């Protein structure tokens, strides 16, 4: 179960990084 959570967190972090780099700064807070 730990691996699943860590993988999920990694995906979320990557998603936020891509969004933060391409969009503004407050968009991430809306998720």
TrEMBL record:
It comes from the Eukaryota. This is Uncharacterized protein.
């Amino acid at each position: 179960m730990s691996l699943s959570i860590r993988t999920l967190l990694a995906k979320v972090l990557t998603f936020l990084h891509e969004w933060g780099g391409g969009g503004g700064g407050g968009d991430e807070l809306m998720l």
